[in-house]
Structures are given as structure tokens and as C-alpha cells.
Amino acid sequence: MQSQLTELGLIASLLRLDASWEQCSFEIPGSCIVQCLDEGCIEITAMQNSKQRALVYSAGVHGNETAPIELLDQLLSLVLRGELIPHQNLLLLIGNPEAMRLGCRELGTNLNRLFCGAHKRLDVDGEHVRAQILERHVADFYTSNTGSVERIHLDLHTAIRDSKFAKFVVYPFTHGEALDANSLAWLQACELDCVLFSNTPTTTFSYHSARTHGARAFTIELGKVNDFGENDLTSMSAMFEQLKYLLSAETSQQHSLVLERCHWFEVSETLVKAQAQFELCFSVDLANFTQFENGDVIALQADEPVIISDGPKAVIFPNANVAVGQRAALLVKKMDSEKIRLIAGDQLKLGKF
After folding, report:
1. Beta strands 150-159 and 194-197: pairing type?
2. Is the same domain home to 234 and 273?
3. If you placed Cys at 182, which of 140, 258, 298, 351 could pair as Cys (CB 3.0 to 4.6 Å)?
4. Closest CA to 3 of 30, 34, 45
5. pLDDT (tens digit, 9 = 90+) per residue, 279-299?
6. How many domains does the chain have?
7. Reported pTM
């Protein structure tokens, strides 16, 4: 497995249908111990661990979101070749390898709706089993990294459509806790200048890590879905540099938060597909964050119009093809910097990540 990962890389190893994923452990001399757990699940234990951060990097929760997988492939290759020396422990996860091999978003169920134990409430298929596996590895990893270590989970995605903001972040629901200015400043250093604040608990991977394990966890959208080899990774260079820094640096880095530089949104409501007779009243290629005004009809539920009120509101993640009972879109409202200051309170200070 070591030679396969080193010579072929993570993506090629996962795409090989004729090769099994072997559980194994091997050493990168003077650097780290690499453990191949389940398929697409790799734990890196730093030999020179400064115990500042316990990192979880995940990608490929949706199998056709290739750019983040390519980023983690490059990161792992640097570690395996000894070109990047970890000083923090890392759990690297490719969420849905089978969907990745098939080039599809999901096998039968949206994996990013099956965390926080949601996999137990529905019929079991490949994604339900995978959610259990991923939850178990995250729990084991954070349990083994004890003390004052900062828990961080970055779940990397790309969107199925264009966006008014090519890269953006979904900040999980905080249950009334103050926003973390250190995290916001770090996200800004990654050139992620658009932040969407959730307004309710969810069953996404990042919310699971935030709520269950107290991690600084975020869903990070890095552009649009493309095939392997067709992604412009240079547009994600700031993100990649920060992924490397968090893993290899012995200390934390200070970042300044410039509130006025960011575009801030909060979820206003969730549009759920309540029945099979459902349609969205706009183009299938409508860009994320497209704004609608009061009185605009955005969907039909069994011929009953869904009309924008208390607008203007923008639409995020519209998808009429989801299963009945699932989210078909998010409606979001723009926030100003003053509202962010009120929500964040005393937390809006310079800090480290």
C-alpha cells in the first residue's frame, strides 16, 4: 500500500478497481507514521508533534467534487515524499470513494445529510454505512488527541453550479455561542471572502464535528464541479498553502480580520421538497447567491407558488432533484458588518489559528 500510494497517488489508488485497499501502517523516516485505515481514510501521526492542532481534512463526500480531492492528493504526496514534515496529527478522509469511481455525486443518498447519527434513521445503503465509518474514525481520532489540542475539521467541496462568489464557507449553527473571530480571520487568509451562517442544526459532516466534538469545523466550497484533471487548482492556492501550514507549522499563525472585506449572509429559511410534484421557477443553471425580490415566485409545490417575502433574498444550493423531504434550496439574506459585530461580541479581536 505504501508503494502504491507513493507511486500512483491517492486518487489513482482509489480509482483502481482491480486493487483492494489494505489496512496497514508504515513510517516516513524522520517525519510521521502513516496508517491506512478504511478505504480513503488515512491517519498521519507526526513524530515531532507540537500538539497544537488535531486536523481533519475531508473531501469527496460527494463523489464528483474532484478539486478538493486533488488538493488532498497533492498534500498527501508531499508528505509521502518527505517534502512536507507534519508537526500536527491529521486524519485525511475521502468521503465517498465508490461514488468517486463512478463519477457521480452519490450512490443513492446524499452522504452529507447522514451525520449526527442520521444514518441510523433511514434505510441502509452504501452511504449510510459510509457515514458510520467516517463518524467512527473522527471520534477515534479526536479521542486519541487529548489535552489542549485545538480540534479543526475542514470539509472541502465544490458546487454543482456557478456562483456569484466562486468560493464561500458555510459556518455551522453555533447554538447561541459567539462567532469565532480567529476562524473568520483564517478563512479570510484562505481568500474565502463569503461566509454563510447557518440558522439551525443540520446533519452535515462539518456540523457533526462542531457539535459532537467541539471542533472548529466548516463546509468550504471551492468552485464548481469538474472532472479530474480539469480543475484550476491555482485558484485554490491560498487554501492549499493554509492546509499545508496548519499541518507542518509548530505554532499558530496570527491573522487580521477585515470585516468590510467579507460578504456575510445568514440562512433565512430552508426550502424543502414537500412532495414529488415540485419545481423550481428559474433556470437550472442559475448561479448561487442570485438575488430575488419580494413577490418573486421561486418554486411550485404541487402548483402552489413559493413567493419571496421579507426580501431581498438570495438562493443557494437549488436542486429540484432531491428526494421528497430533503432540502431543495436555501434562502439567505445579506448581513452588514455591524450585525456581525453584534453577534460576535467581544470575540472580534485579532487571534491565532
Report:
1. unpaired
2. no
3. 351
4. 34
5. 999 998 899 999 999 999 999
6. 2
7. 0.93
Cα–Cα nearest to 246, from 193, 194, 183: 183
Name, in order, each residue with C-beta under 8 angstroms of 143's C-beta and a sequence gap of 6 or more: none
Are 136 and 199 members of one domain? Answer: yes
Distance between CA atoms of residues 89 and 159, nearest Å: 29
Q: Which residues are catalytic?
A: 221
206, containing H or E segment: helix 205-213
Among the residue ranges 122-131, 153-162, 304-313, the one predicted with the least confidence is 122-131
Q: Is 208 annotated as a binding residue?
A: no
Residue 81 and residue 222 in one domain: yes
Name the one residue in this structure whose C-alpha cell is 485579532: 350
- SS3 category, 127: helix
Q: Give the pairing type, strands 263-272 and 327-335.
A: antiparallel
CA distances from 136 to 41, 107, 115, 131, 213 (A): 11, 21, 11, 9, 12
The domain of 56 spans 2-259
The grid cell for 349 is 479581536
**Same structural domain, 138 and 203:** yes
C-alpha cell at 243: 492546509
Backbone dihedral angles phi then psi of residue 106, each to the nearest 5 degrees: -155, 160
Which domain CATH number covers 321?
2.40.50.630
Is it the case that residue 303 has pLDDT exceeding 90?
A: no
Asked if 296 and 186 sit in the same domain, the reply is no
Q: Is 65 annotated as a binding residue?
A: yes
What are the grid coordinates assigned to 254, written together? 496570527
Nine-digit cell at 114?
447522514
Last residue of a domain, one of 209, 237, 259: 259
Hey, which residues does 196 pair with through a beta bridge?
A: 170, 265
Instruction: Say whether 157 counts as a known binding-site residue.
Output: yes
The C-alpha cell 419545481 sits at: 279
**Quick check: is 352 in a domain?**
no
